[in-house]
Design brief:
two-stranded antiparallel sheet; mainly alpha; 290 residues
Length: 290
């Protein structure tokens, strides 16, 4: 029972890290607090659902399509936020909250309030009878993609000049500008990378959670919790935070039931805010200004 719980926690936590990575990257570089993050993930999930159901496109082939589509959406969001006036952080909250409401109603109009799920292919499970545990191949796919993407972002973050420029922008935008880094280009690149991550997370989300127009808050909450735990620009911390949150939720569901999951996530967020009242900006970009 414990081994199965650990496997489920690791699977869910790896996916949660992928969900939070796009939020953390955009927030860290641009200081735009995107409350429409979950709705963008749902939009990507609905796109994958439509491609599979109405055009019979295999699930794997929907992933690059969704990534490209959400890159385009993220670039539009970047152009919108460029026009936001000071105080930027507060006004970005208002703008993205309004965008979230707009997307919710657009998805309600286009897809109705019915719950939808991308069906899993009928694949066998990896069963270990001596341990009384099993692992499904979709779980392996979820973990494999999440870890591969997270590792790729980490290598980009640590081993390339672009990654150093992004990290410098997170730490201090003015100092990065004085060092010759085009911080406006870094903001655009952050939105492009964030859009790719959101586009990949959407179809995976639609395979493990039911899609409905008002379900984006859960994904946004995941991004906020893990970003507060890890701090912006800390890829390993995001991965660890995803595993911890996955473990907390899996344990809660196992012992108390699925109805307690969102309540426990909200309590984790409250505890983190109380424990770290200075906020995430002090960890990743202590003296950063827009």
């Amino acid at each position: 029972m414990l081994v199965q719980l650990l496997i489920d926690s690791f699977s869910i936590g790896s996916f949660y890290a992928l969900v939070a990575l796009g939020f953390s990257l955009i927030f860290g570089v641009t200081h735009a607090f995107n409350l429409a993050h979950g709705e963008l993930i749902l939009l990507s999930g609905y796109l994958a659902y439509t491609l599979g159901k109405h055009f019979n496109i295999p699930f794997v082939c929907t992933l690059p399509v969704c990534m490209l589509a959400l890159v385009f959406v993220a670039m539009l969001l970047h152009q919108l936020l460029r026009r936001v006036k000071e105080p930027f952080e507060l006004n970005s909250l208002v703008v993205t909250f309004g965008l979230a409401l707009l997307l919710q109603n657009a998805m309600l109009y286009g897809f109705s309030a019915d719950y939808r799920l991308i069906p899993l292919a009928p694949v066998p499970t990896l069963d270990f009878p001596r341990l009384h545990v099993f692992i499904t191949k979709p779980q392996l796919t979820l973990v494999g993609l999440s870890l591969l993407v997270t590792a790729s972002i980490y290598l980009l973050w640590r081993k390339t000049f672009l990654g150093k420029a992004l990290r410098a922008t997170i730490q201090d935008r003015e100092a990065a500008r004085l060092a010759g880094i085009n911080v406006e280009h870094m903001s655009l690149i952050a939105f492009i990378l964030g859009g790719m991550l959101i586009g990949l997370a959407g179809p995976l989300y639609a395979q493990r959670e039911y899609l409905h127009p008002f379900g984006g808050m859960e994904a946004t909450l995941i991004g906020i919790i893990i970003t507060i735990f890890a701090g912006v620009g800390r890829i390993r911390g995001i991965l660890l935070g995803g595993w911890i949150l996955g473990g907390v939720e899996s344990t809660t569901v196992f012992f108390l039931g699925a109805s307690w999951r969102e309540l426990v996530s909200a309590l984790v967020l409250i505890i983190l805010v109380i424990a770290r009242p200075a906020g995430v900006l002090t960890k990743g970009a202590r003296s950063a200004k827009r």
